[in-house]
Amino acid sequence: MTLVVVPVRYPLSRHSRATLERAMEVAAEHDADLTVLHVNVYQGDERVTRRELKSAVEAAFGRLNRARYVVRPGFLVEETILDEVAAEDADYVVIGQKQAGRWRRMVRRLIDDPDIEGFLRRELDCEIITATS
Predict the structure, then answer these.
(1) Whole-angstrom Cα distance, residue 37 to residue 39?
(2) Torsion angles phi and psi, residue 130, rounded to 5
(3) Which residues, including other chains, have CB under 8 Å from residue 76's CB and lie 6 or more apart?
(4) What digits encode the pLDDT tens for the residues 121-133?
(5) How distant is the alpha carbon of residue 89 from its chain centre?
(6) Using one digit for the tens of pLDDT, what is the confidence trace for 28-87?
(7) Any idea of the CA torsion for 118, 131, 41, 86, to the nearest 10 degrees?
(8) How many CB atoms lie within 10 A of CB 86?
(9) Distance from CA of residue 95 to its chain's centroid?
(10) How would DSSP label each residue in 48-76?
């Protein structure tokens, strides 16, 4: 089964809504399941539940078929997203422009190659799609 993973903020920002909308399009185009992912950072004060995430998404878009909602704890959002994408063996990851910039900075610390999408494709064996808002 084809899988699209989309990391989002909570509460849903304008950028998260645009990213989620693009992920829904990709899932429909590829007859794929959709995983909506939020990362609760350890150093933050707020803890979002899976139920809250699902309610927020459904309030914005209605009930999504073939969607699951995942909330993971983590220190680094980008690393936690990578872990989830790898663990789920995702075929597509849809990230927002802001997230792409953060991943770019993180990867630059690890390697000299600024091609974030190429790095992620090689490391995760999935297609990275950057949504615009």
Answers:
(1) 7
(2) -100, 120
(3) 106
(4) 677 777 888 888 6
(5) 13
(6) 999 999 999 999 999 888 899 999 999 999 999 999 999 999 999 998 888 888 889 989
(7) -40
(8) 13
(9) 6
(10) --HHHHHHHHHHHH-PPTTEEEEEEEESS
